[in-house]
Amino acid sequence: MDFIENRTFDEINVGDSASLIKTLTYDEIRLFAVMSGDVNPAMVDEAAQSDDIHQLVGRAMWGGSLISHILGRQLPGPGTQFIGQTLQFKHGVSVGDTLTATCTVTTKNESNRHIAFDCACINQHGDVVVAGEVHVTAPDQKIRQAKPEAQMVRKKDPRGSHRGFIERALALPPMPMAVVHPCDRESLLGAVEAARMGLIVPLLIGVESRIRAVAEQHDIDISGLQVCHAEHSHAAAEMAVDLVRAGKASSIMKGSLHTDELLGAVIHKDKGIRTDRRLSHVFVMDVPTYPRPLLITDAAINIEPSLDEKRYIIQNAIDLAHALGTEMPKVAILAAVETVNTKMRATLDAAALCKMADRKQITGGILDGPLAFDNAISAEAARTKGIISPVAGQADILMVPDLESGNMLAKQLEYLADAHTAGIVLGAKVPIVLTSRADSAPARITSCAIAVLMANYGPKN
Question: Fewer CB within 10 A of the terminal residue: the chain, N end or C end?
Fold first, then answer.
């Protein structure tokens, strides 16, 4: 339904009831804490959740919000005025608990349109979490209004999803990473900070005197870190690949050298670390106005990929989404329009890729395309155009037609929408942290965390 409609006082009878079932997630806890102003660590910090009393009340209050949801949107619905409530919090609520909230009409007062509800929230084990009575004034006129969309909650924790990736990666052993030519502040600082946090064990490869000069100039402490001398950036890239082949590095990180220098060593016919997969780049974006991490591919390596190359690009991105925690990512294959046009190759490729997914040539995700950008990220735009799609409005991955469109899209989100970026190359024997030379140290740290998660997800051929 696109609309919600109330029930007036006269339409409600004693014994009428409405219910809502919802599962508590960590994101729900953080959002509820921000909206309620309750930022006690026991609510928002998993490491501090031993406060049983606070957990009992604070998270059970989330259950109380489900009761408000029912009364404000279902029964009576829009136009309801809350008078008072008496709720008791009887049981704690943990992440993963599923609550069934129910509100049942017990009395009606004809003189002032007051209605009393018996309300309860019961968890999946049958335990009563919240119970009590709520009094409201029911509306006397019918109200029908557009259903609020999830996208209306626009403000979210900046870098929230990126921080989540870092937290998950920190639970894993630090990964040996060959850092190639870290001869400027950001690339060296990113590696050193990632090491200090416990994400990686960096092997700094490059002209030793230059690396140490950069460290001294910018007051970056590299004591205790291994510095592997290489005569120049090309030699540093080759040494990094050799370390991977020897099993001494589980990932590579690009420093202040050109991408083609690094990838030239990676794809070398005899000495490289290619697999049967096509190499492709994925931007992992945390966009403040989008409710989930957004993966954009390929915006850095494949200039004008063929249909078969796009197949590998999508599969790489799906595998990364799995490693980041999305079990069945939704892939929007972008074009300028959402219908197949024989004069527009991007739309033909999109249709073919969807059929390839139907035939299990691409697995692990839900594909749809062609989709224009607005349809991919806005359910409202898709509805307006009459598009029925399991992907439209909730894409996890955006597959762009070519490098130029992808690069412009990613940088527009970064510089105009205040999105935070991370970047990684997939398709080689190890994940490769490939950021722009202009990227900040935090972007490199996040990219390191993503590489750790990908490396621990499992090798892909």
Answer: N
**Do residue 323 and residue 373 come from a single domain?**
yes
Per-residue pLDDT band at 26 (split at 50, 70, 90): low
Between CA 242 and CA 269 the distance in angstroms is: 13
Q: Identify whether residues 24 and 103 lie together within a single domain.
A: yes
Kindly report the average pLDDT of the chain as a whole number.
Answer: 87
Query: Which residue reads 């004069």 in tokens?
Result: 343
Tell me the residue length of the chain: 461
One domain, residues 322 and 363: yes
Percentage above 90 pLDDT, the chain: 66
Does the residue 155 lie in any domain?
no
